[in-house]
Amino acid sequence: MATEVLWWLFAAVMVASAIGVVAARSIIHSAIFLIISLGVVGAMYLFLTVEFLALVQFLIYGGAVTVLILLALMLTRMATGDERMIVNGPQAPFGFLVAGVLAVILVGVAFGTSWRGDVDDLPANISIHQVSEVMFMNFGAPFIFVAVLLLVALVGAIILARQEDAE
Amino acid sequence: MVPLENYLALSGIIFAIGVYGVLARRNAVVILMSVELMLNAVSLNFVAFAAYLDPDAITGAVFAVFVITVAAAEVGLALAIVIRLFRNHSTSNVDEVAALKW
């Protein structure tokens, strides 16, 4: 019972901060709302008993990705205060319409479908040992592909962002 | 216990909010943050499905790890592009970057 109350609390925080990300006028506020929202996704992983994934979420998103985004914000801010700029393009009402219809469809399908196999209780904690076993035994090739992808992407990012002296 | 439908509805709402951010905002970095919201909604969906419908409940977690890895690569590359864009055009507003527009 207490778990459910906590779940609804976290869900409300998550939706509110996600709205904050897209609605905040200041970009820095957007980034801070993004940290809150991604942290709550980590809490949702805890509710789903995948502790390893929650830790990964906190580390990668709460740490690395948000720092990267804040750094990019710092590098791309105009010198003049751009807080009062128009944040939305002229297409914003259509975007609102599309997103609203999409939300109605997704929520309607989620509640309209009868999902098979109602488990009585969630599985006990999924340990990092189990996750790594499945990952390396059954998903070896995707793991290698993702590793190469990450390497190529990082080299590409360095080449793109590099200062070119001779020009 | 929280039913599966709640997780699906929550991630659907978060995904729709991310779609709105991508479509409506003008700043490239905010668009990127909205994409992160969408990716997180999807991986939450994966993990919820695995926990409720998969007897092992692990495959979804492996998928989420892959999603996080690809998202990290994507955010690094996209921010490098934004920085290069800002250096060349002095703006991070996607509406003003119309050099290739016919």
Structural description of this entry:
The complex is a heterodimer of chains A (167) and B (102). The longest helix of chain A is centred in the middle third of the chain and has 25 residues, at 51-75. Helix content of chain A is 73%, strand content 0%. In chain A, α1 packs antiparallel against α2 (27-47) and α2 packs antiparallel against α3 (51-75). Chain A has helices at residues 2-23, 27-47, 51-75, 92-112, 128-138, 140-161. Chain A has 167 residues and is mainly alpha-helical. Chain B has one domain: Helix Hairpins. Chain B contains three helices and no strands. Chain B has helices at 4-24, 28-53, 59-89. The mean pLDDT of chain B is 87. At the A-B interface, α1, α2, α3, α4 and α5 of A face α1, α2 and α3 of B.
Characteristic terms for this protein:
heterodimer, A: 167 residues, mainly alpha, Four Helix Bundle (Hemerythrin (Met), subunit A), globular, B: 102 residues, Helix Hairpins, elongated
CATH topology of chain B: Helix Hairpins
Mean pLDDT of chain B: 87
**Number of E-state strands of chain B:** 0
Summarize the biggest pleated sheet of chain A: none
Note poorly predicted spans of chain B.
none
Please state the second-level CATH architecture of the domain at 1-77 in chain A: Up-down Bundle
Helical fraction of chain B: over 70%
- Gyration radius of chain B (Cα, Å) is 17 Å
Order of helices and strands of chain B: HHH
Structural class of chain B: mainly alpha
Percentage of residues in DSSP E strands of chain A: under 5%
In the predicted model, the low-confidence regions of chain A spanning at least 5 consecutive residues are: none
